[in-house]
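Journal club prep, notes for RB
We'll compare a predicted complex against what the paper describes. Inputs for the flavin-adenine dinucleotide case:
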Amino acid sequence: MDIIEKKQSDVCSLNNIILELKNIVGEAYIQIKFNEMSTLTLGRNVSLFSPKNVNAIVKPGSINEVVQIVHLMNKNNPKLGLHIVSSGYNWGLGSKEPVSENAIIIILDRLTEIREINIENGWAIIEPGVTQLNLVKLLKDSSRMLNVTASSGHTSVVGNILERGVGLRRQRTDDLLGLEVITPDGEKIKVGWWPHAERDTAFNTFGHGPSLLHLYTQSNLGIITGAVVRLLPRPQKQTVLHLRFLRKKLLGAVNLFRDWYAQEMVSGVLKIYDTVSTESYGGSVDEHLTLICVSGNHKKVEATISIFLYCLKKPKTVEYLQK
Ligand SMILES: Cc1cc2nc3c(=O)[nH]c(=O)nc-3n(C[C@H](O)[C@H](O)[C@H](O)COP(=O)(O)OP(=O)(O)OC[C@H]3O[C@@H](n4cnc5c(N)ncnc54)[C@H](O)[C@@H]3O)c2cc1C
């Protein structure tokens, strides 16, 4: 629906909001739709969901600007919702598309500060614009690592956690310790575990009693402007085995992998790709690709791989990448 077809009061309200948004973030950081003239570039929606009408895309440059936007929306048209993304690369799950019509999209990729990092204790305080690549580069050659996903290095660590994504080592929600939230009335609160200013404390993520932490994952109850994220200990050696097997062998393969998992021979999330994805990764159309991570000290990794090879009895079908 075009702006000129809307009720006059809504148009005034939207125009006022856009004017004030420009004052808050600056002209360079807002894209608007006005009649047929549109400066909106939402990017490709690779999720095949039906596209929604979007009134504006706004990129605040500070937490203070985020708070001002919330106050502005509260005093104006309550029918215009905000849709928040961090980097907005939620490919396959909606990309940047809002859930409801006529939303104003807030992209937080300008909030890129790594506020604090503690290698010894294994945590980092990061903002929504911090990408996997940013953290991985920072942790290179350290005793800690990030539980990365298989998505692009340019995706947001916070965005993926809020979407309850899957890392290569474990569920991303397991990496979440604390959140900084701007509530719908514009208050900044902290939930979950945050480091104590003067002394080290144990990670007591859920505290006492009901926990508010996961009220804010996969929900639209607040805008997340910061998170405390776990950094995992880096093993001496990590290897990813690439196994391909015929589609008709799926059941047998799953049973075999289940046993390896039960015997704790698999270190991370075991992935079995469908035949379409397998083809895109270089396999043939009637095959499944499996990625199996093995890590630990050198001896453990070598021993585990030799057990795998022994189990498979056909060593030539196994390819593995040394990392
Ligand atoms: C080839 C390929 C491989 C992939 N592999 C994986 C994988 O291994 N694991 C995986 O999990 N995904 C994977 N994905 C899917 C997707 O790319 C990732 O989940 C990606 O991290 C999500 O995009 P993002 O980090 O930019 O999050 P965003 O798109 O920024 O955020 C995701 C959602 O979280 C909410 N949100 C984000 N930020 C905020 C905020 N600050 N405040 C409030 N709510 C917020 C919003 O609802 C938003 O829509 C893959 C995709 C492709 C194409």
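Talking point for the session: The longest strand covers residues 237-246.
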